[in-house]
Design goal:
The complex is a heterodimer. Chain A folds into 5 domains: 92 residues, PAS domain (Beta-Lactamase, 2-Layer Sandwich), CATH 3.30.450; 120 residues, 2-Layer Sandwich (Beta-Lactamase); 67 residues; 142 residues, 2-Layer Sandwich (Heat Shock Protein 90), CATH 3.30.565; 119 residues, 3-Layer(aba) Sandwich (Rossmann fold). Helices cover 41% and strands 22% of the residues of chain A. In chain A, the strands form 4 sheets. Chain A has a 5-stranded antiparallel beta sheet with strand order 2-1-5-4-3, with helices on both faces. In chain A, helix 9 crosses helix 10. A 6-stranded parallel beta sheet of chain B has the order 2-1-3-4-5-6, with helices on both faces. By secondary structure, chain B is an alpha/beta fold. Chain B is built from 11 helices and 6 strands. The radius of gyration of chain B is 18 Å and the shape is elongated. Chain B folds into 2 domains: 132 residues, Response regulator (Rossmann fold, 3-Layer(aba) Sandwich); 67 residues, Arc Repressor Mutant, subunit A. Classes of the chains: A alpha+beta, B alpha/beta.
Chain lengths: 586, 221
């Protein structure tokens, strides 16, 4: 009977051991080579023989109530994994042997495959979650754990809806049920943006793509946290909105100019015609109002904000001149009942910030202060020079509600706000910070709850030397001589020279007024007189710069002069004069 | 010069602004508004007919490119001198005005007396005048080096008047078909202009081009 069994069988009688053919094949030994129990244990188990023998004896005493699996070493040296099932029959024992080597190998391969798959999933940047048809989580990779703040142990076997805000959970469950019934979906295989919830209860946007393994009814979700992307998108939109508001405001200012010019022209006419004393007072008030509107319109163009503005500004701004232009506009940023004062000294150094950016920054600071102060609120705009740190300080101080330490620390974060966002410029202090950073400066916030806030922008003094201070310590602007025949060209040069800060004197082509000049602008009429070549040489020797308008004759080519071939080229002429001014001031 | 009144031709699309200026000129015995055009269309014919001493010209108007029109006027009627009177004070407008041959650039926010005096100075002395407000907005650039003059010319300056016009239309959000229709050109020609503009401005996509027009204020009109 044993002989005919297809699986291995061993028959024990006393110390004698008999193997059937299948057992011989499994062990690789013939029956006469393994004929006793002692031989069996000493041959098949190598140096584990004692241990296996003890186990056998223990099983035997318990009446072979359990199965055991162990490794045997075949005659050819191969190891096989064998399951033993022992039983007694009268005074005999029968062992049934089942070769599990392939099964064990398959199980190990499966385990390895699972581990490899998990490793792949764990190295993925995206969160990957699988759930069964009832929504229970089957797998949860490392990225998902990182995104949601749960460990896999905490989430495996739980309903996937716990990764959603409560308001979405029921909807999700209903949806799955409906899908499994109807097998129609608008979301399977389609990417979408939804809101998810972390372990700590905070919600955040994710991008999610769901696919289904049909025959297993398993759903796989690949997701990524898009909070950063959403913030950048929101910032861009905000930037575009700012830009659009600025553009709109500037357009409004320009349209106001189209209206105000004829209004002012007609007021001149009325004034000229002579007014009865009774209405004179009203007329003066109309003039004042018109002037106010004109100042407002002039200030509006400074609101044009380029969302792409970055880097250190090339523009120099005199705080005094800037305030002159924008005081009407910025004063309107505060509620009427707030007492607003401004003190901008006239002798402050220039700072390197574009006026429109400065306007945006201060407008935001004033709007914030206006919201923070109460009915008896006071807001002051002030500026001074911090001699120790060589910077110009521009500050807004209010007696408003102040900020807590937490708010103060977070105040310059983009989109951080303590109030609902309305039609304001939105980015608030983060924009202010950006502006002051772009000019190489810093922002300081001093605040105490219930007492008020002071925000100070510290701009480094622009490293520049005024052209007026550079003319050999005379304190007078350097002198430029224009020897240009064409009145239009000469006057264009004159306009540019006066903008840049030169004193200008016209001179004839043969005049010798160049003695104290820092710059001499000449045209073909000067070149036409041969003696002027030596005069130009002499000027250059004495440190005077020379700009030649028009083509340079060959005999002049060795001279260190600047040439502007087309005097109508405004930018080139301006750049040549500015370069000369820079060289003069060094 | 003679004592004859200075003859001013206004080229301005806001009729009420011209009416206001015309009324203001009445106070002055030496300045007279002799005509009004709502765009630069027909400028040369009108200038030939009216022989104005001064053409007081707006910039942001419908119709032909004002700078191109002034260049043509300077060639055909050199006795007329152009003074721009614009709501916009922009470097590239001032530059284009000078390059076109204008004699002055004033802002509509200038005092009326300053505008009158500017007209007088240009007409009587033939010199170039910038108003004080315009001068104040022309801030000098610091830190130039020899040999760096070329890059300081604005990229916009490298555009032809027609390219300027197309760019402004792009800035206003007009489609290529609309631009083609407005300028009586084919869509292909407009595409060619746009390619050249992007090339000259070193701009590589259309979104960037639109942002550029916003930044340069070309989208406001």
């Amino acid at each position: 009977m044993v002989e005919n069994l297809s699986s291995g069988a061993v028959f024990i009688e006393g110390d004698q051991l008999y193997m059937n053919a299948a057992a011989e094949e499994l062990t690789g030994y013939r029956g006469d080579e393994l004929s006793t129990v002692d031989e069996w244990f000493s041959v098949l188990f190598g140096n584990r023989r004692e241990e296996v023998r003890r186990k056998y004896e223990s099983h035997r005493q318990r009446g072979f109530d359990t199965r055991s699996t162990t490794l045997i070493v075949r005659k050819d040296g191969q190891e096989r994994r064998v399951e033993f099932t022992g039983s007694r029959w009268n005074t005999h024992e029968i062992w049934l042997l089942h070769d599990e080597t392939e099964l064990a190998q398959a199980a190990r391969a499966l385990k390895e495959s699972e581990l490899r798959l998990q490793a792949i999933l764990d190295t993925a940047v995206e969160g990957i979650i699988t759930a069964d048809h009832s929504g229970l989580v089957i797998s949860f990779n490392r990225a998902a754990a990182h995104i949601f703040g749960y460990t896999p142990d905490e989430i495996l076997g739980q309903n996937i809806s716990m990764l959603m805000p409560p308001s979405y959970r029921q909807k999700h469950t209903d949806y799955i049920e409906q899908y499994l019934k109807a097998r129609q979906s608008k979301i399977i295989g389609v990417g979408m943006e939804i809101v998810a919830q972390r372990k700590d209860g905070t919600t955040f946007p994710i991008e999610l793509a769901i696919s289904e393994i049909d025959h297993l009814h398993i759903f796989t979700g690949v997701l990524r946290d898009i909070s950063d992307r959403k913030e950048i998108e929101a910032r861009l939109m905000q930037g575009h909105r700012l830009s659009a508001i600025g553009t709109l405001a500037a357009g409004l200012g320009h349209d106001m100019n189209n209206i105000l010019l004829p209004v002012r022209a007609r007021l001149d006419l009325i004034d000229h015609a002579g007014l009865p004393d009774a209405v004179q007072e009203h007329f003066v008030e109309i003039r004042k109002s018109t002037k106010y509107l004109q100042d407002l319109a002039d200030g509006l163009h400074l609101l044009v904000m380029d969302s792409g503005d970055s880097g250190v500004s090339e523009e120099l701004t005199s705080l005094n001149d800037w305030w002159e232009q924008v005081h009407s506009l910025l004063g309107r940023a505060l509620p009427k009942e707030v007492l607003f004062t401004a003190s901008i000294p006239s002798d402050l150094p220039e700072i390197r910030v574009a006026p429109h950016q400065l306007t945006q920054a201060v407008l935001n600071m004033l709007v914030n202060s206006g919201k923070a102060v109460g009915a008896d609120g006071r807001v002051e705009l002030w500026a001074d020079v911090d001699e120790d740190n060589q910077c110009v300080r521009l500050g807004v101080t209010d007696n408003g509600s102040g900020m807590s330490d937490e708010v103060r620390h977070r105040a310059i974060e983009p989109f951080f706000t303590t109030q609902s966002r309305g039609l304001g410029t939105g980015l608030g202090l983060s924009l202010v910070h950006r502006v002051v950073q772009a000019s190489g400066g810093t922002i300081e916030i001093q605040s105490e709850v219930g007492k008020g806030t002071t925000i100070i922008l510290k701009f480094p003094e622009a490293p520049q030397q005024s052209i007026n201070e550079s003319s050999q310590g005379t304190g007078r602007p350097p002198l430029a001589i224009i020897s240009v025949q064409d009145p239009r060209t000469g006057s264009i040069a004159e306009s540019l020279l006066s903008i840049i800060g030169f004193d200008v004197e016209p001179a004839n082509a043969d005049a010798d007024a160049t003695d104290h000049a820092a710059l001499w602008i000449i045209d073909a009429s000067v070149q036409a007189q041969p003696q002027n070549l030596d005069r130009v040489r002499q000027c250059l020797t004495e440190g005077c710069r020379v700009i030649v308008l028009g083509a340079l004759p060959p005999e002049w080519e060795s001279l260190d002069v600047q040439v502007v071939e087309n005097p109508n080229d405004f930018f080139k002429l301006r750049a040549a004069i500015e370069l000369a001014a820079d060289e003069v001031s060094q | 010069m003679t004592n004859l009144p200075i003859r001013v031709l206004c080229v301005e699309d806001h009729a009420f602004l011209v009416d206001g200026l015309r009324a203001r000129f009445e106070i002055e015995t030496d300045i007279k508004c002799v005509g009004h055009l709502e765009s630069a269309d027909g400028l040369i014919a009108t200038a030939v007919e009216l022989r104005p001493d001064i053409v007081l010209m707006d910039i942001e108007m419908p119709g032909p490119d004002p700078f191109e029109a002034v260049e043509d006027l300077m060639r055909m009627v050199p006795s007329s001198r152009v003074v721009f009177l614009s709501a916009y004070i922009r470097d590239h407008y001032i530059s284009a005005a000078v390059n076109a041959g204008a004699f002055g650039y004033f802002s509509k926010s200038d005092e009326t007396d300053e505008i009158i005096e500017g007209i007088r100075t240009v007409a009587r002395r033939g010199v170039f005048v910038l108003s004080p407000k315009v001068k104040a907005r022309c801030t000098p650039t610091k830190g130039l080096k020899r040999g760096q003059i070329e890059p300081l010319t604005t990229k916009l300056d490298s555009l032809t008047p027609r390219e300027h016009e197309v760019l402004r239309m792009i800035g206003r959000g007009m489609t290529r078909t609309e631009i083609a229709k407005t300028l009586c050109r084919s869509v292909k020609t407009i595409d060619g202009h746009r390619e050249k503009i992007m090339d000259k401005l070193d701009i590589h996509d259309r979104g960037e081009l639109v942002r550029f027009t916003i930044r340069e204020g070309l989208a406001e009109a």
